[in-house]
Each structure stands twice: as C-alpha cells, then as structure tokens.
Design goal:
Length: about 90
C-alpha cells in the first residue's frame, strides 16, 4: 500500500522529469536553430563568392570584347553582320 506522501513524491518526481525533458527539448531546438543559422550563413557566403566570381568573369569578358571592337572595328562589324545573318536565317526557318 502506498502512502499519501509517497504518491505525492512520485507525482513530484514525474513533474520534475517532465520539466527536465521540456528544458532539454527546448535547449536542443535552440541548438538546432543556431546550427541552421550558421549553415545558412555559410551557404550564403559561398553563393555570394560564386556570384562575385561570375560577375568578375563577365566583366573581364566584356572588357575584352570592348577592347577587340575598339582595336578592330571593321572586322568586328563584319563578324556581327555575319552572325546576324546566320541567326536570321536559322530563325526564319
């Protein structure tokens, strides 16, 4: 037979275990949130790095084309005319 005090002790112990579990779950969720934030920031930095690298490549290619056009305007014009003619013929069909 259990006494009233031992029943109360069991209830208190169960309540303490539930509170500890709740606290552990909350701490785990906060840790996961911190990990997700860290990983998102890291991924964002990597994406920005690739975007910056692509932007640098595009800028470099644009500068090269601009320099080529300035150095050889006649040849550039003839190439553009030929490319336009070919593209026009392809899209017309």
């Amino acid at each position: 037979m259990t006494t009233k005090s031992s029943t109360q002790d069991l209830k208190n112990e169960a309540k303490n275990v539930a509170q500890d579990a709740k606290r552990d779950i909350r701490d785990t969720i906060e840790n996961i949130g911190g990990d997700v934030t860290y990983l998102a920031n890291k991924a964002g930095k990597e994406v920005r790095h690739y975007i910056d690298a692509a932007n640098d490549e595009i800028t470099h290619a644009t500068d090269m084309v601009t320099d080529e056009i300035k150095a050889n305007p006649l040849r550039s014009t003839l190439l553009a005319l030929g490319a336009g003619f070919l593209l026009g013929a392809l899209f017309r069909k």
